[in-house]
Amino acid sequence: MSSIGFKNLNVFREIHIIAWHPTLVDLIQWMIVRFNKLATGNHSTLVITSGFRHDGSTHDSVPLKAIDIRSSVFDNPEDIAGEVNAHWTYDPERPTKLCCLLHAVCPNCKTSNTVPLHDNCVICGENIKARWHFHCQVHPNTQYLGG
Question: How is residue 19 annotated by DSSP?
Answer without folding.
Answer: P
